[in-house]
Amino acid sequence: MFKNDLLENKTIIITGGGTGLGKSMATRFGELGANLVLTSRREAVLDEAAREINDKTGAEVLTVPTDIRHSDQVTEMVKKAVDKFGKIDCLLNNAAGNFISPTENLSENAFRTIIDIVLIGTFNCTQAAGKAMRKSGGGAILNIVTTYAFTGSGYVVPSACAKGGVLAMTRSLAVEWAKYGIRTNAIAPGPFPTKGAWKRLVPPGLNIEKKMMERVPLKRFGEHEELANLASYLMADESGYMNGEVVTMDGGEWLKGAGQFNELERMPSLAWKAMDIARKRKK
Ligand code: HXC
Ligand code: NAP
Fold first, then answer.
1. Catalytic (active site) residue 148
2. Is residue 96 within 6 Å of ligand 2 at its C-beta?
3. Which of 148, 180, 233, 241 is catalytic?
4. Alpha-carbon distance 126 to 108, whole Å?
5. What is the pTM of this model?
6. Hey, whose CA ends up nearest to atom 44 of ligand 1?
7. What distance in Å separates the CA atoms of residue 202 and residue 139, rounded to the nearest whole number?
8. Are 99 and 203 in contact (CB under 8 A)?
9. How crowded is residue 165: how many other Cβ atoms within 10 Å of its Cβ?
């Protein structure tokens, strides 16, 4: 899909880069020539992912265990990345925390924990990496949000509030930091199976996975490769005029929920035919 050196000489920080979608996007960036900085809390998970990615792509991979809720750790992580690679070109804010719960059952700490990881963590990484990018003449920041950042969703209210905040940050900084040569964009993925998300968001035994798939007009979940290619495009200089955009990749899922008449999909073709016959008879 792309020339093999699309991201050559770029250093990309990927938060939550040791698992799930972060790891898949990091792998694709590595295939396209980027140097990688993987960061999350669990050192062993990061090191295992780094070995795998290096074996598969030959990319240079630095791992820096970091809890992005703490700005001092994030500052140190960015410093280590600059010490190793000389500069930061791109930041992928992908790390997140989430769980399902009736909102009335949430403790203050439960709500705050998700806000801290998703919104404060994204701010910490954006600010620290943004300073480094500014010094080296610019860069690209890509934030992974969700479609319920714009629709809202019950049972994931802390995440919806945090992702909505990240979307506002995306659009705000696209304007404020353009003068530093920093572009800021977002992707809103629909359902892409990962261990981390499925374990926390898809309760077993209720056939929820099947129902989730049926909600998607394309009748399937996303492939990691599809998301990784979109992320690569948004990181590349070739998308240099994209700034402040949120690109949805969800097989049409959220629009299906939004369109008032979309449920007519359930109407059998015989009923459509009967309506048509009745209409023609009336003429
Ligand atoms: C209610 C819960 C809860 C739950 C935790 N809490 N799980 N409350 N329902 N299921 C409460 C705890 O009781 C505690 O409050 C507070 O939240 C903090 O919990 P800890 O376990 O101490 O937090 P921590 O160890 O920091 O772990 C954070 C975590 C955990 C978010 C709870 O799940 C985690 O590490 N997640 C990281 C990965 C992740 O979530 N991946 C999924 C991303 S998927 P009290 O008051 O008791 O102290 C995603 C997809 C979106 O975002 C769209 C999909 C289609
Ligand atoms: P995942 O594998 O659970 O990814 C979450 C990552 O965040 C983990 O690598 C985790 O690593 C890291 N993380 C969590 N708390 C952290 C902290 N305090 N500091 C640093 N890192 C932290 O789930 P995923 O499905 O791939 O999700 C990736 C992103 O896609 C998230 O932003 C999610 O909201 C978004 N998304 C996913 C879907 C989907 O269907 N999968 C849909 C829409 C949006 P550690 O535990 O090692 O810290």
1. yes
2. yes
3. 148
4. 25
5. 0.97
6. 197
7. 36
8. no
9. 18
Per the listing, tokens 């300073």 go with 131
Q: Which two tokens stand for residue 68?
A: 């992005």
What are the angstrom distances between the C-alpha of 256 and each of 149, 207, 212, 217, 262? 16, 20, 12, 7, 6
Pocket test for ligand 2, best of 144, 156, 247 (most atoms within 8 A of CB): 144
Class of domain 11-282: alpha beta
Residues found in the chain: 283
CB 84 within 8 A of CB 57: no
For residues 117 and 16, give the distance between their C-alpha atoms in angstroms, rounded to a whole number.
Answer: 11
Distance from chain centroid for Cα 66: 19
Phi-psi category of residue 112: left, alpha or beta, with phi > 0 → left and psi -120 to 50 → alpha: alpha
- The token duo for 233 is 């495009």
CB proximity list for 275: less than 8 A, separation 6 or greater: none
Share of the chain above pLDDT 70, in %: 100
Distant-in-sequence contacts of 102-106, Cβ < 8 A, 24+ apart? 102/155, 103/154, 103/155, 103/157, 106/157, 106/158
Query: pLDDT tens digit string along 66-90?
Result: 999 999 999 999 999 999 999 999 9
Query: Could you identify the residue written with the tokens 């996303």?
Result: 222
Judge contact between 255 and 192, C-beta under 8 A.
Answer: no
pLDDT tens digits along 15-28: 999 999 999 999 99
| Cβ-Cβ contacts under 8 Å for 96 (sequence gap 6 or more) | 16, 117, 118, 144, 159
